[in-house]
Automatic annotation (TrEMBL):
Coiled coil: none annotated. Belongs to the glycosyltransferase 28 family. This is Glycosyltransferase. Residues 256-403 form the Glycosyl transferase family 28 C-terminal domain. GO terms for molecular function: hexosyltransferase activity. Residues 71-230 form the Diacylglycerol glucosyltransferase N-terminal domain. Keywords: Glycosyltransferase, Transferase. It is found in: Membrane. It holds the Pfam family MGDG_synth. InterPro entries: Diacylglyc_glucosyltr_N (IPR009695), Glyco_trans_28_C (IPR007235), Glycosyltransf_28_UgtP (IPR050519). It comes from the Bacteria. One of its GO terms (biological process) is glycolipid biosynthetic process.
Length: 436
């Protein structure tokens, strides 16, 4: 409306008030406005068609693996964000468990046993396979698992897009049969070459350093997005409050150390760790045992008659771990990618005790190089560093600032929302209505 009135006066000019050069400029201006209006009308028509078509449903296939809790939690976070985005359907698929259940159980047990009893074996295997290319003998074999199941799945579900939170790329070997867009969400701070495949359309990574590593391997920069790792929807920043301390039976006048035992294998020497920390009256411990009920019972029995047992609070599986992270001044944990991402989101200094060789040790080394984590080889060193940090407000503040620098910038949305919005934008995936 703002440009139509002067243009109308121009074309009604019969007195020759406007000279020829002015008319040429106005005609060019008018042509530009007309083209712009056509584009806007087409866009509005497309948006109206998407919004007004309740029967038009898109479907997302999320391929994950149950080797560790992080891949599953990332898949669930993406599922929830996608469902929030509009009228959509999501298929969650544990490819190895569905296609080779017996082999899946065997490999899971081997993973857990080697992780807890033969960590150097696991680290050695991780190291020798890390530079593996997709078209190598081993790479081709690993990516062939579940190929027949994927064929059936594509025919049955007809997804609009596929997201991987674990690099089982059986679908990619079928790329000639299907042009479905495929996306990889790398769930660690270290890059294993198994994640890299030429038919992946876009990679979502936690850090700029991972983006640089992928670029060094020949991946185009516009095929990589630094999104952060996808965390569940309710993982959000909250403030400390008396009600929150009361809910978890913690005291606001003491420094809180949060210890997370880990989903795959128990972090060693937890009893000794708690004993040493309880020697310091200004420290209280929140110990999260997860699904490991025997560990929770063992700790409670061991410290039942301890004079400082009131400063050791044990928990099972936690749905709202972000609330405990808010109350904590320091975190002791195994360095899984998603757990570290939660600590980064909470700006929580992290202490890692004897990380297992493999992706977790590489995660730990990366965060240590950024000043966001401390790696300890023995309990004494761990407790000393932890106490030094939580008892020094300035050092604690500086540590939180370094951690903040690792948070993905440029969006007010969560990583899961950022990834889903990016996929919907770049894929032929209709959305009913944006709720972000």
């Amino acid at each position: 409306m703002y440009v139509s009135f002067p243009l109308l006066l121009f074309f009604l000019d019969e007195g020759g008030y406007y000279n020829n050069s002015t008319k040429i400029i106005y005609r060019i201006h008018l042509s530009f406005i007309c083209v712009l209006q056509i584009i806007l009308r087409l866009c509005c028509r497309r948006c109206a068609m998407l919004i007004q078509s309740p029967d038009r449903k898109s479907k997302l296939l999320i391929v994950y693996a149950s080797y560790g809790e992080g891949h599953i939690q990332a898949a669930k976070a993406l599922r929830d964000a996608y469902l929030e985005f509009g009228n959509h359907q999501v298929v969650m698929y544990d490819l190895m468990a569905e296609s080779h259940p017996w082999l899946n159980e065997m490999t899971k047990r081997f993973y857990q046993k080697s992780y807890t009893h033969l960590p150097f074996l696991y680290g050695w295997m991780y190291g020798i396979t890390k530079p593996m290319k997709h078209d190598s003998l081993l790479g081709s074999w690993l990516h062939s698992f579940g190929r027949q199941k994927v064929k059936q799945l594509l025919l049955q579900e007809k997804p609009n897009a596929v997201i991987y939170t674990f690099p089982f790329y059986a679908l990619q070997s079928l790329k000639k049969l299907s042009s479905i867009p495929s996306y990889a969400v790398i769930t660690d701070f270290d890059l294993h070459r198994r994640w890299v495949h030429p038919s992946i359309d876009r990679y979502y990574v936690a850090t700029k350093d991972l983006r640089h590593e992928l670029q060094q391997l020949g991946i185009r920069s516009n095929a990589i997005k630094v999104s952060g790792l996808p965390l569940k929807k309710d993982f959000q920043s909250i403030k400390r409050s008396p009600e929150l301390y009361e809910r978890y039976r913690l005291q606001s006048n003491r420094a809180t150390v949060l210890i997370m035992a880990g989903a795959q294998g128990v972090m060693p020497n937890i009893i000794q760790m708690c004993e040493q920390l309880l020697l310091h009256p200004d420290i209280q411990i929140a110990l999260v045992c997860g699904h490991n009920i025997p560990l929770k019972q063992l700790v409670e029995e061991r410290f039942h008659s301890h004079p400082s047992s009131h400063r050791l609070i044990t928990f099972g599986y936690m749905n709202r771990i972000h609330e405990l992270m808010t109350l904590a001044d320091g975190l002791v944990t195994k360095p899984g990618g998603l757990t570290l991402a939660e600590a980064i989101a909470s700006e929580l200094p992290t202490f890692i005790y004897r990380p297992v060789p493999g992706q977790e040790k590489q995660n730990a080394l990366y965060l240590q190089s950024k000043g966001a984590a401390f790696i300890a080889k023995d309990i004494d060193a761990l407790v000393e560093e932890l106490l030094q940090l939580v008892n020094d407000p300035l050092q604690l503040l500086n540590s939180r600032m370094r951690i903040r620098s690792l948070q993905a910038k440029g969006s007010s949305h969560s990583a899961a929302e950022t990834i889903i919005m990016d996929i919907v934008t770049k894929s032929n995936v209709p959305n009913k209505v944006s709720v972000f």
